[in-house]
Amino acid sequence: MKREFLEELEADVKVSTENPLIIPTWHNKFDDPVLIIAFEVTLLGNPRVSEEAEELAYLHPQDIAPNQLDSTLINKLSVLICDTNQ
Question: Which range (4-8, 42-46, 47-51, 70-74) has the least confidence?
């Protein structure tokens, strides 16, 4: 995961492997079940646009179109963001 952040955003991260968030969901495009395992990541530098990424953006789960992710995943992400902001 650290390597992907370096490649995609040219930024280092600290990955916490304790208490990963496990989200069973569904991928509508392929009509297949998907298991997402999410880890808390602390950004250790400023992300930059690289050859691997055309643009950077921070999105709130409410800003993600429902056809991009299913409601289960959006709701789980919303809870995480609300808990982090408190």
Answer: 70-74
C-alpha–C-alpha distance, residues 42 and 40, integer Å: 7
Is residue 61 a contact partner of residue 74, using CB atoms and an 8 Å limit? yes
How many other CB atoms sit within 10 Å of the CB of residue 69? 19
Q: Report pLDDT digits (tens) over 39-61.
A: 888 999 888 888 877 888 877 76
Q: Domain span at residue 24?
A: 2-85
Q: State pTM to two decimals.
A: 0.60
Tell me the C-alpha to C-alpha distance, in Å, between residue 22 and each of 4, 10, 18, 46, 50. Answer: 20, 27, 12, 27, 29
